[in-house]
Amino acid sequence: MSRSYTSVVKVKQDVAWEEQQDAFLQSALKLWYITVCRWDDVCAFRIQLHEITMEDDALQMLSDIFSGKSPSTLRKRALAIMKMCDHADLVDVKFPWRESDMYAFICHEQHCGAPVSRIKGYLQTVTFCRFVLEVKELQPILRGFQEQGGERTCASIPLKVTELQELHAVLHIGGEIWDRIFAGAVLFCVYARARWGDLMRASSVIEDFNRDGVLCYLEARVGQRKTMNAQQHRHLHLPMVAPSIGVDERNWLDLSFEREARIMPAPLPDGTAGQRPLERTEAAAWLRLLLQGSSEISAERRLSSHSMKTTILSYAAKRGMDIHLRMQPGYHSSPYKMGLTYSRDGAAASVMAMEGMLEEIRKRTFDPDDTRSGRIKNASQNRAEVIEIKEEEGEPLEVHQV
Q1: Can you name the residues that pair with 400 across neighbouring β-strands?
Q2: How far apart, in whole angstroms, are the C-alpha atoms of residue 73 and residue 110?
Q3: What would the pLDDT profile of 286-320 be if each residue is shown by its tens digit?
Q4: Residues 129, 126: Cα–Cα separation, whole Å
Q5: What pLDDT does 85 receive?
Q6: 70 in helix, strand or coil?
Q7: At 240, which helix (H) or strand (E)?
Q8: Which pLDDT score is estimated for 334?
Q9: Tell me, what DSSP letter sits at residue 284?
Q10: Whole-number Cα distances in Å, 219 to 243, 334, 351
Q11: CB burial readout 289-327, b (16+ within 10 A) else e
């Protein structure tokens, strides 16, 4: 099957991500404005918004309330509320609902075949309105619909070592230039443990050479990201560091491609690089196309863009790496704010631990794709063997550890 990028990259307006984000935000704000205007006249938030006569001023108020929220999240929540308002019009009720109205709506959606994830999304949207917009009328719904227990399932799965090796092969000997560029971007995302969307918003890329002039690390400095409002990362550019040697012995950074802040621009139909970054849905489809021969989601292996971030973190968990060393590579908030603030390279320990694990994978002493009983190879040889030497008269006992 053809691996041409033209089957997965959409033809869209070619604009930089900053302009794209602003357009998404304005669109999401207008959706919220239109939707809230459909709410019950007695709703306190609807009254507050309606008191602002100028639409531009109302949109600015919404922008202030939603400050720091992702435009895509705002749009998703607004569409969910709009769907609920459409149903409310059919049954002649007004939003915000009572608990019985919410129950009737969920039953209707289940009867129409809505997946569990969509039902959960509606409840998340109600929670969003309750606490972000302070719609206190929704509190009874939150008390009545507590999240039910059950086994949690992961939406994405990590890449296998063999799949990473295939990406290395595409990068070094692939035929199509855009496949090679994309494979390099995926490896950057994997080894930097980054979300695809965060990496695409990198403000700069820093190259780290050793004394022999060999490129050893690539660092993307990211300001706009999902955890930007966490106290630990606030007002800081997040350094996403990727080592040059992964599961393959070859230096994947030793390429002729020009490195810049636009890590993976979406290719245009004529084969040139566009201004907009490749979107995560396009990246996921392209990844499946390279590794599975089809851009469609496979029931056996549900590869997504988030598979790139989870891969190394999954390997680290299987290797038994310390939990704190696993939190730092994933850029999660942690209680060690002081230590990270006053260390000028807080990622050093976790990156060194990750490099040691990757070396074990290359040497085949650790296989994260194996079962729990077979992941560590030659485990008995790695244990320290103690040899006792009997004490001679007048001499101390000696114990040697090898």
Answers
A1: 387
A2: 23
A3: 999 999 999 998 888 889 999 999 999 999 999 98
A4: 5
A5: 94
A6: coil
A7: strand 238-243
A8: 52
A9: H
A10: 9, 21, 12
A11: bbbbeebeeeeeeebbbbbbbbbbbbbbebbebeeebbb
Strand, coil or helix: 9? coil
How far is residue 119's CA from residue 123's CA, in Å, rounded to a whole number?
7
- Here the contacts of 283-288 (C-beta below 8 Å, separation 24 or greater) are 283/182, 283/185, 283/186, 283/196, 285/8, 286/5, 286/8, 286/9, 286/182, 287/186
Instruction: Give pLDDT, residue 6.
Output: 86
- Which residues lie across from 376 on neighbouring strands? 366
**243: β partners:** 217
Please check whether residue 264 is in contact with residue 278, taking contact to mean a CB–CB distance below 8 angstroms: yes
Element spanning 319, H or E: helix 306-319
pLDDT at 212: 92
Contact present, 173 and 244 (Cβ < 8 Å): no
Q: Are 5 and 295 in contact (CB under 8 A)?
A: no
* pLDDT score at 231: 40
- How far apart CA 188 and CA 252 sit, in angstroms, is 9
Instruction: Report residue 205: phi and psi, to 5°.
Output: -125, 130
Identify which of 180, 233, 191 has the alpha carbon closest to the alpha carbon of residue 355.
191
Any idea how long the chain is? 402
* 3-class state of residue 80 by DSSP: helix
Task: Give the residue ranges of the chain where pLDDT is below 50.
Answer: 1-3, 149-151, 225-236, 333, 336, 338-344, 380-387, 389-390, 392, 396-397, 399-402
